[in-house]
């Protein structure tokens, strides 16, 4: 279920298509067929926390649980939670007073928190802690009267949330080209921060060009592009040069997914396709392809990747080579309202506990 109430609904509009085995033909290619499976891929700690937060809220308090915006940018995840009683809204005005609302992993501005209070909503904040870290940096620099050059994409929810923490002190820089054009108040008192899900290489180019103009530009205290975004880009860069085709699983509004496709392209993959579901793979994509790369964005459940591997196996790509460039075991604790169930039993997730372990993972 979803509510629009005067603004475009944030909900997923489609259901997951059935997986049809044998749909793709096993056509001959020169050489052998194989899949290079990038690792890390898929769920990051912030997405895991946010999705579990909605699941726990539904279990503890019952439906409906309202969620401001998509909890994470993945159609399948949103549709699955909707089917269980989550109600995704774009605007808090769509929510009845005194209802529970969860803020998404992308974070919110202080104005949204205030609006929730004004509407007497019971808010649970599922903002990824790594986004909250950027919010804190923005507040701290703004207090010190430093101007913030925020590298990010206009209109992205995370960028709106971060800018909302220092609205008078932040200038958004959306591209390397824009870095050549922005005006600042004081070139000697500047810091750059960034959205967490950007291309590392493009961001560094933007910063390089900013620094040409503003040599005193300070760096963030720690990397703002998060570990998960960086790790997934490193992994796809490793496989892409060896791939005829790279399939990136993830939704079109997922920033880190779209960046993965861009990185794969610039790293040398002959062709790159982004899909939500395995049913979208087309036979012609595989024409003459010996090596097919597979990866997935940070909001993608592993079951969707498994379905891609099944379809590829039907097409003769049953040799799956796991290419690991980093190990991840980070896990964030749940929002405090959800750390115990109604009987007081504590959350017992282990590190990475929701991931399905694959046969070919050691
Ligand atoms: S991609 Fe990074 S910042 Fe975004 S939810 Fe995942 S860990 Fe957090």
Description of the molecule:
The chain is an alpha/beta fold and 362 residues long. It has three domains: 34-43 and 227-324, 4-hydroxy-3-methylbut-2-enyl diphosphate reductase, catalytic domain (Cobalt-precorrin-4 Transmethylase, domain 1, 3-Layer(aba) Sandwich); 45-128 and 332-338, Rossmann fold (3-Layer(aba) Sandwich); 130-213, 4-hydroxy-3-methylbut-2-enyl diphosphate reductase, catalytic domain (Cobalt-precorrin-4 Transmethylase, domain 1, 3-Layer(aba) Sandwich), CATH 3.40.1010. Helix content is 31%, strand content 16%. The strands form three sheets. A five-stranded parallel sheet has the order 10-9-11-1-12, sandwiched between helices. It has a four-stranded parallel sheet with strand order 3-2-4-5, sandwiched between helices. The chain has a three-stranded parallel sheet with strand order 7-6-8, sandwiched between helices. Helix 9 links the parallel strand 9 and strand 10. The longest helix has 17 residues, at 45-61. The radius of gyration is 21 Å and the shape is globular. The two termini are 40 Å apart. Residues 1-13 and 351-362 have low confidence and may be disordered. Iron/sulfur cluster (SF4) is lined by residues 44-47, 105, 128, 130-131, 196-197, 226, 228-229, 256, 298. Iron/sulfur cluster is lined by residues 44-47, 105, 128, 130-131, 196-197, 226, 228-229, 256, 298.
